[in-house]
Amino acid sequence: IPGFEDQVIGVRPGDVRTITVTFPEDYGHQSLAGREAVFSVTVKELRQPVLLEINDALAVSFGQENLEKLKSSIRDRVRQDYDGLSRTRLKRALLDKLSEIHTFPTPPTMVEIEFDSIWKRRQADIDGGQIDKDEVGRSEDDLKAEYRSIAERRVRLGLLLAEVGRRNNIAVTDEELKKAIVAEARRYPGYEHKVLEIFNNHPESADRLRAPLFEEKTVNFILELVKTTERQVSIEELSREADDEGNASKETA
Fold this sequence. Notes:
Layout (H helix, E strand, L loop, with lengths): L15 E7 L13 E7 L13 H6 L5 H35 L6 H20 L12 H28 L6 H13 L5 H10 L1 H23 L9 H14 L5
Antiparallel strand pairs: 1-2
């Protein structure tokens, strides 16, 4: 919150301060946006960062055998992260091109169902205090028109990818689905057994994983046929472009 940290400069352990701030107009929680708030702050302790010695002991504290193993693990993780960002941009570019060159009519009922799903999710985000800054001050009619356009794009791309998959015998195997279910369960450490139980007892839950798997396989199939050009970019440029992609991802999610 702007101005909060400035008012605690110079404090010592045991100090008590009253801090008055105003939440930004675009604050994430709508109930607090633009409102003045008063905080009573009691200082418990002061800390400062201490540089760690980069050695084998540090590596062991992170669960690695030695420093070289830790460095290798970090390099692999960073490479995976950047590969993921590059893949996201490539997929986005492909879907944009497919959307650009295919403009067939979409079934109104499917569009309406997709729009309702998007709008309900947006309302849930708002109820949870999550507000898209780009939507502040816009009318509901304007927003609904934009989201209906997004719904139409999603339906069109979905139908297009489904047809590509059908014509080329692309399908999600049981083994691929099982791996996806296990990966989903691992996202909830300590609750893996319960998650797997849900999938076993509710087959429709597994079907929700099948759709994105099918989409990825179809996208991979298309990417093997198209010509792509690689170019090197800086980490800053890749991250900045990834942020831009994230802002636009609601169109293809």
